[in-house]
Design goal:
The protein is α+β, with helices and mostly antiparallel strands. Among the domains are: 114 residues, Alpha-Beta Plaits (2-Layer Sandwich), CATH 3.30.70; 149 residues, Alpha-Beta Plaits; 124 residues, Reverse transcriptase/Diguanylate cyclase domain (Alpha-Beta Plaits, 2-Layer Sandwich), CATH 3.30.70. The protein is 56% helix and 12% strand. It is built from 31 helices and 14 strands. The strands form three sheets. The chain has a five-stranded mixed beta sheet with strand order 6-7-5-8-9, with helices on both faces. The relative contact order is 0.04.
């Protein structure tokens, strides 16, 4: 059972990260203490000074004073600048460079006053940190997030991603364990590049500065997929962004651009709620909700459909061409001349026009459209400005009313090929439109697009993969596996199909088949596919984990050591530490195992597996019985459902003399088929230490009967039985 209250104590020291995370409030406190201060910079090393622009100062001189401050840990003044060092530990300090001061003040100020001010500031910084840190996870909290938005400079562009990883738990303790694991995994995704907040109820936040919508569109799906691979059951992400305006309320009334920090938070929350309604794994941006009417794939407007329908009403077959200009052109409608008998042109807007051609010959239509596009191109002008999308009827099972949207999908398909393209609607167009919906988190609509594409091209491997991934995001695992298997029957060495199939088999608990799929993916030839780059980087880690899980320790080392060497600068590389430690232990190299497990605990202090195994190794190698006991106790506190952790804890307790407590912890292990032999030996050892020879003989005899010959446990059981017999003879 848990013995300690499961919350962190309040922070009692500062770290160098705090000066980045609390930059604005720390700067504000300094400006209140040191009057006339214009700017504050927190410097960790000399290289940061190259980016500074300090009016009226020579950079080489400032660097010399910075170096002196770091070496002496004493405040230094020069001209209109002050250097205040804040000591993080005995070997490291962060220096606050304060500029814009009165040079007379800098010359006259006393050294004692500077030291006293520095110490006062450091204490106030610590108070600010304590108020801004979540006790459950050690992350920044909602108070700090509100402060961040309230103090953001006017005009700064802010993006906010809210992440909900809702737990499926029965107790408050399980909820705490879930939140802490979520925090550790999320930190490994971004490292220190983006600050991470826990704002309560398993909702986390990533605020980022100067990010755009395109980056967010990639960040959201990547994060959701990453967390799904880490076997979370439900993950939702909502995103919004805006330019900070302190007069946002007035601006909105005047229809001017400007957003308050609170408004960005509200918008991200609305996007998160929308994502929650779309399935177990989803991502949504507020902008996609706000601009739904202007979405490039939004259903055709009724007025355009009403103008086109009378012309095709009597036609059983035809081609519809949408001509789109990226800018208004003079006489756009009038200049288009149609030579094909029965053709019609319908104006939709200043930049869009539809041509209805009574033919199904796509090549004939392409020639006609090429002539039209060339008529707008004079001496290189307007080149690439006009593009066209062509759709025909009848085609597959599409209704006439869907042909308008098919033209639009062909145009979007053409945009990927370059400006000014003429594109005929086909299965690839539906793959593109499906990817657009998928990227916005509308996975049900993406699935519909991919299915339509497969009706046209049932053997398209890309469509099968896209549909399989979408099924996986909806937890429709059997459908996903069927798609990946079908793709592999068409293209046996398709890397992404093998990789995705391995992930699905792993989630289904079919470890042997998952290993086979990952090994197959490892052998697939490289192709010019940028989309698979992240998967290729992740594959060795996924395969290494499964090797370790199945006891193939040397193979784990063979694949994970090179992977870590190449990915060590990546914040997620720490996910390999525990598996490397376990594998080194598995091949008998305990010294190296200890090093990797210690790194695993620094990477994730809530890693119960690493804590438990490190405790066992410490105990076996005489590295400190009490330390080993503490590690094993901590692992059981974090995970109270793993019998192996109780066995290791009981072993440490027996070694340290806590025999009655150890006896209680061995009970669940004796009921576990895989552990009862080891637990029985420990029971024998426990009774031996208590002097109960009859009970000890019983358990050692059971161990001797069931243990594999030649093992250490069998040898020790035989030794203790001999000791018991010898003592019994002597007592007679």
């Amino acid at each position: 059972m848990i013995h300690h209250f499961p919350l962190f104590s309040a922070a009692h020291s500062l770290s160098r990260h705090d000066f980045r995370n609390f930059y604005l409030p720390f700067s504000k406190v300094i400006k209140e203490k040191v009057l006339t201060a214009a700017n504050v910079f927190f410097l960790e090393d000399m290289e940061q000074m190259d980016e500074l622009l300090v009016p009226g100062s020579h950079l080489p001189i400032l660097k010399d004073f910075f170096k002196t401050t770091v070496q002496t840990h004493a405040p230094v003044g020069h001209d209109h600048c002050l250097f205040l060092p804040f000591i993080i530990d005995t070997q490291y300090s962060v220096v606050a460079l304060i500029t814009g001061l009165d040079p007379l003040f800098v010359r006259k100020v006393g050294h004692d006053w500077l030291k006293e001010t520095r110490d006062t500031l450091q204490q106030e910084f610590l108070t600010l940190k304590q108020a801004g840190v979540d006790l459950q996870t050690g992350l920044l909290n909602g108070v700090h997030l509100n402060t961040l938005f309230d103090t953001c400079p006017e005009g700064e562009h802010i993006g906010l991603a809210l992440v909900e990883i809702y737990p499926k738990v029965r107790t408050a303790m399980e909820d705490m364990q879930h939140v802490r694991r979520s925090a550790a995994i999320l930190k490994s995704f971004t490292g220190e590049h983006i600050p991470l907040y826990h704002i309560g109820q398993s909702v986390f936040a990533y605020p980022c500065r100067n990010c755009d919508e395109n980056s967010a569109a990639k960040f959201g799906p990547l994060l959701v997929s990453f967390l799904k691979r880490e076997q979370f059951k439900r993950v939702h992400v909502g995103y919004s962004q805006g330019k900070i305006s302190n007069t946002a309320d007035q601006d909105s009334e005047l229809n001017q651009s400007g957003t308050s920090g609170r408004q960005i938070l509200d918008e991200a929350w609305l996007a998160l709620q929308t994502a929650c309604k779309r399935g177990p794994f989803n991502f949504c941006t507020y902008q996609s909700l706000q601009n739904a009417q202007r979405h490039p794939l939004y259903a055709s407007e009724k007025n355009i459909l009403a103008r086109v329908t009378p012309h095709w009403h009597q036609l059983d077959q035809f081609l519809l061409v949408q001509i789109h200009s990226t800018k208004p052109l003079e006489n756009f409608y009038e200049k288009i001349a149609l030579t094909l008998t029965g053709s019609k042109k319908i104006k939709a807007s200043d930049t869009d026009m539809y041509l209805l051609l009574p033919t199904t010959d796509s090549q004939e239509a392409i020639v006609l459209v090429q002539e039209i596009l060339q008529s707008f191109t004079h001496q290189g002008q307007n080149k690439g400005v006009i593009a066209a999308g062509i759709a025909r009827f009848p085609f597959s099972n599409f209704r006439k009313t869907e042909i308008l949207s098919n033209c639009r999908k062909a145009l979007l398909h053409g945009e990927l090929l370059g400006p000014g393209k003429i594109t005929v609607f086909d299965a690839l167009s539906l793959n593109v439109s499906g990817d657009i919906f998928y990227g916005e988190g509308d996975i049900p609509r993406a699935i519909r697009e991919y299915k339509k594409g497969l009706l046209i091209a049932p053997h398209d491997v890309n469509l099968l993969n896209s549909l399989g991934v979408s099924y996986a995001m909806m937890n429709r695992h059997h459908g996903a596996i069927d798609c990946f298997l079908k793709a592999l029957t068409i293209k046996r060495d398709d890397f992404i199909s093998c990789y995705n199939l391995g992930l699905e088999r792993k989630l289904q608990g079919n470890i042997v088949s998952a290993v086979q799929s990952f090994e197959h993916a490892l052998q697939c030839p490289r192709e010019d596919e940028q989309d698979t780059e992240n998967a290729r980087k992740e594959l060795p880690l996924q395969l290494g984990k499964l090797y370790c899980l199945t006891g193939r320790y040397q193979e784990t080392l063979d694949i994970l050591l090179p992977w870590y060497s190449s990915e060590s600068s990546n914040p997620g590389s720490g996910r390999a530490f525990r598996y490397l430690g376990e594998s080194f232990h598995g091949v008998g190299r305990d010294r190296e195992a200890m090093g990797w497990l210690q790194r695993a605990i620094r990477f994730d202090e809530f890693d119960a597996d690493a804590l438990s195994l490190l405790g066992e190794i410490y105990l076996a190698n005489n590295e400190g019985d009490e330390i080993a006991l503490k590690l094993c106790e901590k692992s059981v506190e974090l995970n109270q459902t793993a019998p192996l952790f109780y066995l290791r804890l009981a072993t440490a307790q027996i070694q340290c003399g806590y025999l009655e407590t150890a006896k209680e912890n061995l009970q669940p292990c004796l009921r576990n088929k895989a552990l009862k032999e080891a637990a029985g030996f420990q029971m024998g050892l426990l009774y031996w230490k208590q002097g109960q020879r009859k009970s000890a003989r019983y358990w050692f005899s059971k161990t001797l009967a069931h243990a594999q010959a030649g093992t250490m446990r069998q040898t020790l059981a035989s030794h203790y039985l001999s000791e018991i017999e010898t003592r019994q003879i002597h007592s007679i």
